[in-house]
């Protein structure tokens, strides 16, 4: 059936064959990471989720585990999971390139709802932690954000505050699910239409992402914890377009 696939047994031998080429310590590392992946999958399905997106699994696995796995096995997390677990794998999205695991005893014919894809700069406004005593405002037209509402105001553009209730604090690095929930809550509180903030709405600007969005999206969770930029630098990056 289109959108679903059952992996042949031959594909699932990849890890066992590769483990023979690793030394004992490396094989043990891969085995440990596999157990942590198994735990993430089981916890997701224990919450009653009908599906678990492989991209989400990759985000929830620690950066060190992901890098170690890719280094030792030569495969990405998604490929490793497909080769080494017996879950049914479904495909969705416009190009059938978004992969997800179907929950045991679930109905693989029912495709899970895709999470909304927000504009990169808008997403960054909810991803960057808020320092103590600081406020955050966002321009609803340009998605430029910062602590000074007047600095980001533009003609005929509304500026709204993102209250601390919808933002991470200090060294917190929120998951994608947490960011999505906070964005949804903020949009509801502000009585704003989600469609205005999605990538599809602004495809014509795809080649003009600002440097701040590019920087935030390029960093992994560990790197984000170590980054501390002065407000004037954030302001500059947020208003400078990529070539």
Strand content: 5-15%
Nearest-angstrom radius of gyration? Answer: 21 Å
H/E series: EHHEHHHEEHEEHEHHHH
Give the count of structural domains.
Answer: 2
Which spans have pLDDT < 50 for at least 5 consecutive residues?
A: 1-17, 201-208
Structural class: alpha+beta
3D shape:
globular
Number of E-type strands:
7
The average pLDDT value, as a whole number, equals 78
Helix content: 40-55%
SSE order and pairing:
Blueprint: E1 4-5, H1 14-19, H2 24-46, E2 51-53, H3 54-60, H4 63-73, H5 77-84, E3 89-92, E4 98-102, H6 120-127, E5 137-139, E6 145-146, H7 149-152, E7 159-161, H8 176-190, H9 211-218, H10 221-226, H11 231-239
Antiparallel strand pairs: 1-3, 2-4, 3-4, 5-6, 5-7
Helix pairs in contact: 2-4, 6-9
Structure in a nutshell:
This protein has 243 residues and is an alpha+beta fold. The chain has helices at residues 14-19, 24-46, 54-60, 63-73, 77-84, 120-127, 149-152, 176-190, 211-218, 221-226, 231-239; strands at residues 4-5, 51-53, 89-92, 98-102, 137-139, 145-146, 159-161.
